[in-house]
Amino acid sequence: MLEEILECFADVETRTHVDGTLGAGGHAAAMITRHAEMEQFIGFDVDRSAHALAQPRLEQAREKAAAANARATGTLKLSLVEANFRQMREALKALKVDGVDSILLDLGVSSMHLDRAERGFSFMNDGPLDMRMGESAKTTAEEIVNTWPEEEIGRILRDYGEERHWRLLAKRICEARVEKDIKTTRELVEAIGNVPGKWGSIHPATRTFQGIRIAVNDELGAVEDVIPAAIEALRPGGRLAIISFHSLEDSIVKKQFRKFAGFAEPLSEEVNRYMPQPEKPPKIVRLITRKPLVPSAKEIDENVRSRSAKLRVCEKL
After folding, report:
1. Which residue range forms the structural domain that includes residue 158?
2. Is the pLDDT of residue 217 over 70?
3. What is the mean pLDDT of the chain?
4. What does the alpha-carbon distance between residue 58 and residue 72 come to, in Å, rounded to a whole number?
5. Alpha carbon distance 35, 31 (integer Å)
6. N or C: which end of the chain has fewer CB within 10 A?
7. pLDDT at position 191
8. Where residue 188 sits, what CATH number does that domain have?
9. Distance (Å, rounded) from C-alpha 194 to C-alpha 197?
10. In angstroms, rounded to a whole number, what is the distance separating the alpha carbons of residues 212 and 218?
């Protein structure tokens, strides 16, 4: 969703930009090229290899922007932070950044993770059962499937993987590990076996791998942590854009954006319309996207992995 991202920041004077999910630097390089007024770029990624891939690309974009645009204000400062974006508040303080104009978060696992068998994210390629996005993760997928209780494995398959057959698959995993430890992605796929139901284009192991990966990296907890910190860091008129790839992430983003936009929580069974209503939270942002933007049919044709992407944007008041 590169064009949609560039469009959502097009009318923002971006002197300081934060990319919370640097990856290979594609979005970051495009932002640097498009915003010649940029004075500082800050990129977060827990993966050391991402920094190695992105830095030359960012430096090239910096040179291109300076050469092509007379509006360039000087040498752009590149600050690459090897940390999870949930540490944004602390990292910006350490860098002495007192305000940010634009922040982008591209959530979930990246193609550079999926395409490298040795990282253990993909059920299509055999590799060690790792799934850590960075070395700072406290546990691995191998530890989860071999040591966690069956009920805990079932919980993450249900809550994070949204797997209907979570009890069955947790039981199968725990039965397989009695015979021998599950050490590779292929061994985990074999332990899962055939899953009931019609799957179409979705592999039966997709939701299991998703649930375990989210647990390994505490992905949902990180999203919960970063949104308040990101909004706090924005200057008035600055924008926060978040791309999510599954309903759990999007639900958190939607709920947090609505809260900071001053909307009250939807009524629950405990609080109906005849009872005293909860106070609305203070309005700190306005919603740029009332409904999430989604990829064009052309982009989905060119990159099928983008099909589930949703982009939400808010602006600091």
Report:
1. 118-217
2. yes
3. 90
4. 15
5. 6
6. C
7. 95
8. 1.10.150.170
9. 9
10. 10
